[in-house]
Write a structure and sequence with these properties.
The complex is a heterodimer of chains A (about 160) and B (about 375).
Chain A (H helix, E strand, L loop, with lengths): L8 E6 L2 H11 L9 E3 L6 H18 L3 E6 L8 H6 L10 E4 L5 H8 L2 H14 L14 H15 L4
Parallel strand pairs in A: 1-2, 1-3, 3-4
Chain B lengths: L8 E5 L6 H15 L5 H4 L5 H5 L8 E9 L2 E11 L6 E10 L2 E7 L2 E4 L24 E4 L18 H10 L2 E3 L9 E2 L13 H11 L3 H12 L3 E5 L2 E3 L2 E3 L1 E6 L2 E6 L5 H19 L3 E5 L7 H14 L5 E5 L3 H5 L6 E5 L8 E4 L9 H7 L5
Parallel strand pairs in B: 1-16, 1-17, 8-15, 15-16
Antiparallel strand pairs in B: 2-3, 3-4, 4-5, 5-6, 6-7, 9-12, 10-13, 11-12, 13-14, 17-18
Classes of the chains: A alpha/beta (about 160), B alpha+beta (about 375).
Chain lengths: ~160, ~375
């Protein structure tokens, strides 16, 4: 079976291929429970992420209250990007939707930190261990508030405990 | 040469006829050598001359090369064949086996040269902990050119590089399963299944006989995929014969299902579970799986591929081929290789996806046929 829709689970909606590869790396974390996360088809642009969220996922999230979603977008160095994105999330779903991404774009992360999958794996490790080794990078630091919300909501069911 | 070094899992993509499955066929020839098949004509057919020679030519060697890092040592083996002028007999042209760049033996035509002390320097007597150099003086021996030397040369201990390499090569998993041909009966045990996995039951028996704890790994994976799985039984049902049954149960009751009655996709789950258990039990293994997404429902493909990728992160190497968008998306630029061939008359070109300019979504570019080295 795929993710169990009646158990807590996360769907990741990536903006593009680079963000998809970050998500791949995240899902390769050795302690992550495979069947609690799924990576969706890339949307092709941050506005398309929001459009697809509204058209396909709002009603599905209403239907499946155990569903959480991560919208993985590029911030394109725009301070207003997070608020613009959040404005499209219905209030009753706000607690279950998280908007994360590179300050510019993942390719900039790749240039300084290496392969996108490795960066994604480091993000997962930070998430699970409650550290900020990678999330504290200049290109990721702006995610702090969303990341904190994500950790509180998702970490308890997404990772195995040793 | 496929640039696979340093990757725990790799995806091969490319159009039909690009050469993806041929990678498995080439590995299969090396695997046969390691499993003891050493007559050149049992490894290659006359038509295989086209692999290395091109259409209309048969005077060029077909060469196989493999390099593997095992326990920190780099093993290299090459063997080349030529088609005799009669056009129906393959002969060995040359052969080399080296560890950490030091030649263990080399061969030209029929002359095999074992290097002085080359084996002994790498293999130490387990009992005495003394180098067994004295047993391996430089030597020359003639070997019939119809025969590959690797299976003939005798290893001296389980630490002998020849033994380590041959065992690893022979235990490679080269999989192209045909679920409808896979039953549950077994009359023997094996750690080396055939590529169609028609001997799944014997492999299951072999893995559990080798490492009974492997059942835990099998059970762990399968219960994620089939939550109503109870257990798997493999009772003796006749003289030296066993038969696999899968027990399913939930709050409605329990039902035993003969292995052969599982669906094609469910049999693939079983194979995946055994691959993961085998890599843990007697790995590190190289697993080449040609289109692992075949027979799977769309919602399973990504999880299936991811489970295999994760299973090889701590050892071994998983190589998949695929045309399936869901499988392709579970790999990334640095571990995806694009195979491309302009025509059947030209060799396959291989480029990492990371070196190819792609506009937009990879799957979209593949659909448009725009992914070319």
């Amino acid at each position: 079976m795929s993710v169990n829709k009646y158990q807590p689970h996360v769907l990741v909606l990536p903006e593009d291929d680079a963000n998809r590869q970050l998500a791949n790396g995240f899902s390769l974390d050795p302690l992550l429970i495979d069947r609690r996360i799924d990576i969706l088809e890339v949307a092709g642009g941050w506005t398309n992420v929001l459009d697809r969220f509204r058209s396909d996922h709002v009603s599905e999230m209403d239907r499946y209250p155990q569903r959480f979603m991560v919208l993985l977008i590029d911030f394109d160095e725009r301070h207003d990007r997070l608020e613009a994105a959040k404005d499209t999330i219905p209030d009753h779903l706000a607690e279950r939707v998280f908007i994360l991404g590179a300050w510019s774009e993942p390719e900039a992360l790749k240039a300084v930190l290496g392969h996108l999958e490795d960066i994604g794996s480091a993000m997962a490790k930070d998430c699970r261990e409650d550290t900020n080794t990678i999330w504290d990078h200049d290109l990721l630091r702006h995610n702090a508030d969303e990341l904190e919300r994500l950790r509180e909501s998702v970490r308890p069911f997404l990772f195995r405990t040793i | 040469m496929l640039p696979l070094s340093g990757q725990s899992s790799v995806l091969l993509i490319g159009k039909n006829g690009a050469g993806k499955t041929t990678v498995g066929l080439a590995l299969g020839i090396l695997q046969k050598i390691a499993r003891g098949i050493n007559r050149a004509n049992d490894l290659l057919k006359p038509k295989d001359a086209a692999i290395g020679a091109g259409i209309g030519r048969s005077n060029v060697a077909v060469r196989f090369e493999i390099q593997a890092e095992l326990d920190g040592k780099v093993y290299e083996y090459t063997v080349a064949f030529e088609l005799w002028k009669t056009g129906d007999v393959w002969l060995v042209l040359d052969e080399t086996f080296a560890v950490d760049s030091k030649t263990v033996y080399s061969r030209q035509l029929a002359d095999v040269h074992i290097e002085n002390g080359s084996i002994s320097d790498s293999a130490e007597s387990a009992a005495s902990q003394q180098p067994i150099r004295a047993q391996f003086k430089e030597a020359w021996l003639p070997v019939d050119r119809h025969l590959v030397a690797l299976p003939i040369l005798q290893e001296r201990s389980a630490e002998d590089p020849l033994f380590v390499f041959k065992q690893w090569l022979g235990r490679m998993l080269i999989l192209q399963p045909i679920p409808s041909l896979i039953g549950g009966e077994s009359k023997h045990e094996t750690l080396a299944p055939n590529s169609q996995v028609t001997d799944f039951a014997a492999w299951f028996s072999g893995v559990l006989a080798h490492a009974p704890a492997a059942y835990g790994r099998i059970d762990e994976y399968l219960k994620q995929v089939m939550p109503d799985l109870g257990d798997i039984k493999n009772p003796v049902v006749g003289r030296e014969q066993r038969s696999l049954f899968v027990q399913f149960s939930n709050n409605l009751g329990s039902i035993p299902v003969p292995f052969e009655d599982l669906s094609d996709g469910e049999k693939c789950f079983m194979i995946c579970a055994l691959v993961l258990a085998a890599n843990d039990a007697y790995g590190p293994l190289l697993c080449f799986w040609d289109e692992p997404d075949s027979h799977l429902s769309l919602d399973e493909v990504g999880h299936f591929v991811l489970a295999l990728r994760k299973g090889f992160q701590s050892g071994g190497q998983f190589i998949a081929t695929s045309h399936n968008p869901e499988a392709i998306r579970r790999f990334s630029d640095e571990n995806t290789l694009v195979l491309y061939r302009k025509s059947h008359l030209e060799p396959t070109l291989v480029r990492p996806l990371s070196e190819i300019q792609i506009s937009g979504d990879l799957v979209g570019a593949l659909v448009r046929g725009d992914v070319e080295p």
